[in-house]
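Collaborator request, handled under Task 6.
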Amino acid sequence: MKKIMMTSRERVLRAVNFQPTDRVPIDLGAMKASGIAVKAYNRVKARLNIHTKTRIWDPLFMIASVEEEVMKRFHVDVVPLDVSSVMYDMRPDSELVPMTLYEGAEGLFPPYTNIGTDSEGRWMLLDKNRKPTNYRMPRDGYYFDDLSFNRPGSIIDPKTFKPVTGFTDEQLKALNARGKFLYDNTEYAILGWGGGVCFLGLSLITDRLSNVTMGLPSEWMVMLMTEKETCHEMMDKSVEASITCLKQLHHAIGDYCFAWGIAADDSGTQNGEFISPELWEEMIKPHYTKLCAWIHQNTNWKTFLHSCGSIYNLIPHMIEAGIDILNPIQISAANMEAARLKKEFDGKIVFWGGGCDTQQFLQTASPQEIREHVREQLRIFKPGGGYVFNQVHNIQPNVPADNIIAMLDAAYEYGEYTI
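Structure tokens returned to the collaborator:
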């Protein structure tokens, strides 16, 4: 058979359209839930003899921005175009905020980052006025915890709920410039993110620019059952606001992106869905359907949904609602075995993830065991396309560099097709 070589952009576009490719595309950091923690990333860079200062893409979760040299080494195919970071993506290192991380490594934080120390010696994120927020990270911690999470009395007032309905001209110009630069000067596929909706997780609007958070998921879950009309009104406002945002985004970006992330909406626990499929169908599905329909009717973008945990019984509804791409495919959760998902949903939705179990395997297994694990996952997911390799969610800070390298090298080696 003749071996056909494709660019990364061609490879990803064909994969998400269930068309033959030369190999399975690889993602590392095309979104903030598919990347790598800065501590783990720095260890990998040290093993590769790369000595640049690491840009910290997301200070809250301490996620690294993956550099071109690392992307090329591991044959990564996708880059992010993220509303939350686009204002500083193209700035030189000299304009970022240098800090020494706990382990002594140098890191570069976004320009707006302010970090202080509280009375217990923990790092704390400060707002733009340098006042303490609710986010703290212990000296031996991995990321910032939200101390206000799920505290009573913090749910927003439905009557005053006003989601963000647009972006500044400066943001839109930056998105256009960054998108054009990536499209014209690289061969990577570009995944867009920001301005989406989130109904079940921590907030009604995932974009942090909204500054509107539910703060109390348990109360929201109760409302979905006891105040259905109010919830529908709030979610409809949210979708309408998102469509307004997406109109602006599409005008600025157009076809530079192949897909847009509509939500980071975790709907599953380790053992099952934390909302019944019937309630999801009744309360959530109509709003996703409306949002996805607008995207499909007005853009060439695929819709990309991030939803963790055991969500097997929700996937049929997600497909019917118009979700094209599903991430992170948590194969360690109940009913989420790769073979089962592939058998039942093959050709109906793109699986983006599930390539390596980060929860129970990546940290503790040997490099050779990880290679075999990745090989088996690819054996299942690879046939027929519709698959992009990514580990399950972010690579955590305590994962050995050898294991990460083994995983990504195996994804490239065993992901090849014969066309």
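The cover message to the collaborator said: "Confidence is low (pLDDT under 50) at residues 201-215. The chain has one domain: 8-54+68-92+152-414. Please let us know whether this matches your experimental observations."
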